[in-house]
Amino acid sequence: MHILITGGAGFIGSHLAEHHLGKGHSVVVIDDLSTGSVGNLSAFNQGRCVFNKCDLLTWEGLDEEVKLADRIYHMAAVVGMFRVLEQPIEVTRVNVLGTERLLESVARAKTLPEVLIASSSSVYGHSHEKELREGIELVFAPEKAGLTGYALSKLTNEIQAMAYRKVHGIPVSIPRLFNAVGPRQSGNYGFVLPRFIKQALSGVPLTVYGDGTQTRSFCDVRDTVRALDMLAGHPKAWGEPVNVGNPREISILDLAKLVIEHSGSRSTIEFVPFEKGYGESFWQITQRRPVVEKLQQITTFKHAWTLEMTIDDLLERNRSNIVPEGRLL
Ligand code: UDP
Q1: What pLDDT digit, counting tens, does each position of 258-292 carry?
Q2: Which of 24, 28, 49, 185 places its Cα 20 to 30 Å from the Cα of 1?
Q3: Model pLDDT for residues 10-69, shown as the tens digit of each residue
Q4: 301: CA distance to ligand 1 center in Å?
Q5: What superfamily would CATH give domain 2-178+221-245+289-301?
Q6: How far, in Å, CA of 222 to CA of 317, rounded?
């Protein structure tokens, strides 16, 4: 199989590349390196992997590569809460126009490769439902700063994917990704677990935003990419959003305690007001738990990683990267 991954030098994209290379496939990665890094790809054997640094919005080689691909994973997007808040125009420009350009190219190619358009749990917006399942009505509050621009860009990606499925018959899957975690995730753009791991290993306080009662459901990225692989190739998944995540829900305060416990760190916990972390008028999502029945009905997917296993694995991998006296490499 020949795989094209947009945003393939990013966190999830690089795991997709590793996963498919491990299955003996050939992989082409395109990435503008805005948040991804070449180092993410050098972390594993890159035989049969070609990397192109380019902007998806302008890259002239796109049509050629699309024609050669059996499957395309579209992961390129502006991600990470810090970046989303700092660059609100880029969010819609890259996320919406990039997806449009890719789907147009696929429609022109007429070779009908399988396409996966990455959506996000953020499309559930400010829903007060305790469990998030695909069919529920979505609630947005555009006047509340933070997530809405990103959430609507991802919802637009879903609508684009459905439209191209309807009009051009593209076999497109649309996973809603819930908080993937694992090796190569960077804390620089806000993601919580790599930040807690580094803070714990450096012996500095773990910065919990708000009172820490907000919850998330974390899914190991190696589980995430297996689920994506299964969905992308499954006709029953084409044309509809499907939750991809781990239904185990944990508060951010309990996550901080778990990291401290597993690391044996003497770090304390510091509560930081949301405004300090994200700026004024930030609106936090208080709860997030996926229902994954649809994923399990369509595929044979089962989780292989618990949160504790992921934390232990990250601690092990990061221990060698931390220099004494609490400085981060
Ligand atoms: N968070 C935190 N400390 C940090 C970074 C994030 O307490 O240093 C919190 C953040 O406010 C949110 C949760 O951790 O409640 C998950 O944040 P992340 O950015 O990883 O994911 P998202 O909010 O997009 O689900």
Answers
A1: 999 999 999 999 999 988 877 766 777 889 999 99
A2: 185
A3: 999 999 999 999 999 999 999 999 999 999 999 888 889 999 999 999 999 999 999 999
A4: 27
A5: NAD(P)-binding Rossmann-like Domain (3.40.50.720)
A6: 15
Which residues 6+ apart lie within 8 Å of 86 measured at CB?
none
Dist CA 32 CA 54 (whole Å): 5
Which residue has the CA at smallest separation from atom 4 of ligand 1?
192
Output the CA 100–ligand 1 centroid distance in Å: 29
- Hey, how many other C-beta atoms are within 10 angstroms of the C-beta on 286? 12
Most distant CA pair in the chain, distance = 59
Residue found under tokens 């306080």 = 205
pTM of the predicted protein model: 0.95
**CB burial of residue 184 (10 Å; 0-12, 13-18, 19+):** buried
SS3 assignment, position 33: coil
Burial 303-318 (b: 16+ CB within 10 A, else e): bebebeebbeebbeeb
Helical residues (DSSP H) of the chain, grouped into ranges: 11-22, 38-42, 62-68, 81-86, 88-92, 98-109, 148-168, 192-202, 221-232, 252-263, 274-278, 293-298, 307-319
Own/partner long-range contacts of 36-45 (Cβ < 8 Å, ≥24 apart): 36/7, 36/8, 36/9, 36/10, 36/11, 37/9, 38/9, 40/9, 40/10, 40/11, 40/13, 40/14, 40/184, 41/8, 41/9, 41/14, 41/17, 43/14, 43/18, 43/183, 43/184, 44/17, 44/18, 45/21
Q: How far away, in angstroms, is 172 Cα from ligand 1 center?
A: 30
* 81 C-beta closer than 6 A to ligand 1: yes
